[in-house]
Amino acid sequence: MARKSSRAGFAEPKTPSSARRPGGSGAEEVARGKRKLPPAETLPDGTVRYFLVAGPKGRVLLPADMRAALDVQEGDVLTAWLKDGEVRMHSHLHGLRKIRTEAASMAKGLGYASDELIAERRAEAAKDEQETLRDRREQKMKRR
Q1: Which of 10, 53, 52 is nearest to 28 (CA)?
Q2: Residues 6+ apart with CB under 8 A from 142
Q3: How far apart are CA 79 and CA 72, in angstroms?
Q4: What is the pLDDT of residues 59-76, one digit of tens each?
Q5: What residues make up the domain containing 85?
Q6: Which of 30, 44, 46, 60 is the most buried (most CB within 10 A)?
């Protein structure tokens, strides 16, 4: 079977994801620099909302102030979650800080959680033993 020749630059087949979206001219204007996106906006709950544009191959450029707030440098790894159509992400450095903070708060206790659990169980067992002894004494008193 002979292979079809294609002109240079047209070798990749068109896929549904590469098709133009209707009404997407606004994004093209932003990409060309003809129209600017709205600036970052702080919402009443303290959340900062950014408007970003998906570029070629779905790449999104994070604005400089967002990268500074995330303490993200070129080459840093980000962790992202997708839930209910929303994306949430943080840098690995931020994740490490969260783990350290949580571990430090756990270490501020007086001991291990297992030691605390054992002490509670022993106290319960001693209480049960005292109640059992009291009940036996009462039964002996009734028999007399």
Answers
A1: 53
A2: none
A3: 12
A4: 888 888 888 888 888 888
A5: 70-108
A6: 30
Q: Which of 67, 72, 37, 34 is nearest to 52 (CA)?
A: 37
Task: Examine residue 40 and state whether it is found in any structural domain, yes or no.
Answer: yes
Q: What values do phi and psi take at 81, rounded to 5?
A: -120, 140
Residues 47 and 32 placed together within one structural domain of the fold = yes
- pLDDT of 130 over the 90 cut: yes
DSSP the chain: -PPPP--TT--SPP-GGGSPPTTTHHHHHHHHTSSPPPPPEE-TTSPEE----B-GGG-BPPPHHHHHHHT--TT--EEEEEETTEEEEEEHHHHHHHHHHHHHHHHTSSS-HHHHHHHHHHHHHHHHHHHHHHHHHHHHHHH-
Q: What pTM was computed for the model?
A: 0.46
Residue 18 lies in a domain: no
Q: For the residues 34-43, what does the mean pLDDT come to?
A: 82
One domain for residues 45 and 75: no
